[in-house]
Amino acid sequence: xxxxxxxxxxxRGQTFFPDTIVGFDIGRDKSLAAIDAxxxxxxxxxxxxxxxxxxNDPGDNDVYHTGVLVKLKQVVKRxxxxxxxxxxxxxxxxxxxxxxSGLMLSCDYDIAPDTDNDPSDLNLVALVRSxxxxxxxxxxxxxxxxxxxxxxxxxxDDPANLxxxxxxxxxxxFDIKQTILEIDSxxxxxxxxIGVISRENQILALSKRINSRVVxxxxxxxxxxxxxxxxxxxxEELGEDDHQDDEISIWKEKLAALNLEEKTDAKxxxxxxxxxxxxxxxxxxxxxxxxxxxxxELPWNTSSKTNINIKKAEKILDxxxxxxxxxxxxxxxxxxxxxxxxxxxxxxxxxxxxxGVGKTSIARSxxxxxxxxxxxMSLGGxxxxxxxxxxxxxxxxxxxxxxxxxxxxxxTNNPLFLLDEVDKLGNDxxxxxxxxxxxxxxxxxxxxxxxxxxxxxxxxxxxxxxxxANTTSxxxxxxxxxxxxxxxxxxxxxxxxKIAQNYLIPKQMKAHAIKKTQLTxxxxxxxxxxxxxxREAGVRNLDRxxxxxxxxxxxxxxxxxKGKYQITSRxxxxxxxxxxxxxxxxxxxxxVGTTTGMAWTAxxxxxxxxxxxxxPGSGKLILTGxxxxxxxxxxxxxxxYIRSIAEKYEIPEESFKDYDIQIHIPEGATPKDGxxxxxxxxxxxxxxxxxxxxxxxxxxxxxxxxxxxxLKIGGLKEKALAAYRHGITKxxxxxxxxxxxxxxxxxxxxxxxxxxxxxxxxxxxxxxxDEN
Length: 772
What we know:
By secondary structure, the protein is an alpha/beta fold. It contains 27 helices and 27 strands. It has a seven-stranded mixed sheet with strand order 19-20-18-17-22-25-26. A five-stranded mixed beta barrel has the order 1-3-4-5-6. It has a five-stranded parallel sheet with strand order 8-9-12-7-13, sandwiched between helices. Strand 23 (703-704) and strand 24 form a beta hairpin. The longest helix is centred in the first third of the chain and has 28 residues, at 186-213. The termini are far apart. The model has no long low-confidence stretch (mean pLDDT 82).
């Protein structure tokens, strides 16, 4: 017998037998992990029974060591807390040891044999007949359906199979079943089972006789129910049960006023009629009441009067936000179309950009400018499909999904619905929320959006959906396809100054109860905060530093009783401390093997240094700094290209054979990936192999081919703005990206020099300093 290592599940109060199909619920984390592991491999698990059902975290000593091998057929989520598993029980097994990895249980096992199983043995033939006879009598006594029982074992001639099927069907304690399961000898197993069924038959026969004599003796629950039913009839006869009738009348009046579609109206009326026939104390009555009230609370025909005055909307948007021209333009276009058509489906827009640039706050302003209600739903970390579509009413405590709840909260059927952080959705065995959002965000489908709880369609086509994300790379393609993507780029210094002066400083002064006559922050001080305390794509940290200034001034006003304070670039450090960012890249000295690149991340553009060193070795290329697979391949491509031009630039062949070359990107804890650092690594490798210094005050970006061509990259605007923030004035870019320069603000383009590259050699002419 072969030893195996396999996922293991301990069950409470259940024992299974081979040759049967079983269904059981799993809720413990280790059992769920075992199910996941099995479904991802060969779908086999070993199942055994716990000795003590009260043990929540069973180990090797807490389970019986005879169990069964089960092949999983289906895993269905039945509730937030557990899943229902369906499987075929194939063999009995002897469990050698149970292992606990901390995440799940596994075990070693041997197949348990069925001994003395000879169908021609007269003793076994007699046992088979006796067992069948007793089983049919058991079915008759327990009112389990004799026809189904005969169909179950008809044609089963193998004694072991018959014993397993009948043992699985009888209703006895798990420890009795476990005793039967542990017997290897088929005749002994059958004799044991015959004894158990004989005893059960005697008990069932006795119970029947007792029940027939005590029909009149109701238990307490039955008496309560009977008396309450009588009380209900008496109240109806006396006309005292008006409350429920009034409630039903109000519901029917509301329903009639809604004037819903025929199918929807009929379903709700059917539910109201069903409720009217229920006892008020019935648990189902509360479920039904909650459902009816939820459906009638929905704003089926209630809409906000949308503002279609473009000038008024533009004024509101400009009041609340500086810049964000693309977003404002798109909203004004929508309002113009509404003015012409008088009706329009709500647009579905995705605002993509780094943190702190105002994606969430502009959504509030859009709602105000269009006179719509505003509701927000954060999708960060959402993993359960039921969060979107709701739970079916079969579950205890079921509620509608967050989409329907938000619509009820808004009170109108045309609010502005913000789905925040759509790029951070997750998924697991409870479903895929991103797939559930496909129906919500599809203009062709969302007019009939059906929540699992409601089970009737609700029209979402009038809702204006706006989603936000830091990057589109993690958004599933089908979901991204349903949205109109508008990129919200980083702010330049001039924009940040305007935002601080017109929005942030007045807001924080008001929040801290500081009057305009008490505090003045000069423009030079604002620029120093931006450049030396808050290098970022957005203005979130800038807002924090302004709040920090206001707190310190508020303290001085209270303690010093002085009338007016002025903050300038000269005294700024007294309030905010020493500068955080002081070493501008423009002051860096040229070095051998070090170049400056640019990258785009979910938090905006960044500059990065590529460091290379050459050391005695065997020709290996060592890559460090948490590079992703694409970046590693880009480094290998750069190395291949430099080696191909080695002869032209008189780089000795020994440099590749007798030396190891290491490429490192600092900030090793931060993951980095993408092909756009190819030209930067090529120049760094050329510098270290030739021993010539590289200019570190020039930043560059571009993908490199093996033939040395520089290919187009993405995110040029963000990268250029990042370089600008760090004081770099000269950037090398792929020639194919030349049209993208138009996206960079004119004020930045005037202060920077952009050189277009066709090949790596073009970059070498700009970067490498020839001191000869």
